[in-house]
Design brief:
It contains six helices and four strands. It has 163 residues and is an alpha/beta fold. Helix 2 runs parallel beside helix 6 and helix 5 packs antiparallel against helix 6. The chain is globular.
């Protein structure tokens, strides 16, 4: 009971109601990333953070920190793409490595993020993120298409959940 009360208070104050983020959703998102990485040399990584952004840290700065910490900069073709969702701030940022940003401008990623957030806020959280992963994968296939990625799966597929 105390745990439920604490959970409800946290969600009320931080706006981070993440009850949808259960084992089933995590499995669906893992599968979306795994399937999304087929047919191209890019790497997708999904980070979902439940806690508020520290201090007045901008969302992009937080995304850059995770990009660095998780080693997305270290892919063979500089083709890592981070999808960072902060539940408490209800914001999403997509950050692409230099190989990707050379062919896919940031405004394309920003448009995808805005569309995803609209679906997310309408209560279709998991489906919105799955669609985002599919759309990101389609962009990577367009620019980094390969029948067989010679570098293999360079990064883990399960989303990183930060409490």
């Amino acid at each position: 009971m105390f745990k439920d009360l604490l959970h409800n208070l946290k969600n009320r104050f931080f706006g981070a109601d993440s009850r949808w983020l259960d084992e089933r959703a995590i499995a669906a998102l893992t599968a979306a990333v795994k399937n999304g990485e087929r047919g191209h040399g890019g790497e997708l990584r999904l980070v979902i953070e439940r806690r508020p952004l520290p201090g007045d840290t901008p969302l992009q700065t937080r995304a850059e920190r995770h990009f660095s910490t998780l080693g997305l900069w270290n892919t063979a073709d500089r083709s890592g793409v981070l999808i960072y969702l902060n539940l408490a701030a209800r914001k999403l940022h997509i950050l692409a490595d230099s190989g990707v940003s050379a062919v896919v401008p940031q405004n394309v990623w920003d448009d995808l993020a805005a569309r995803t957030l609209r679906a997310f806020r309408a209560g279709h959280e998991t489906a919105a993120l799955e669609t985002l992963v599919k759309e990101a994968a389609a962009l990577l296939r367009q620019h980094f298409g390969k029948a067989d990625d010679p570098h293999g799966n360079e990064l883990p597929d399960p989303p990183v959940i930060i409490e």
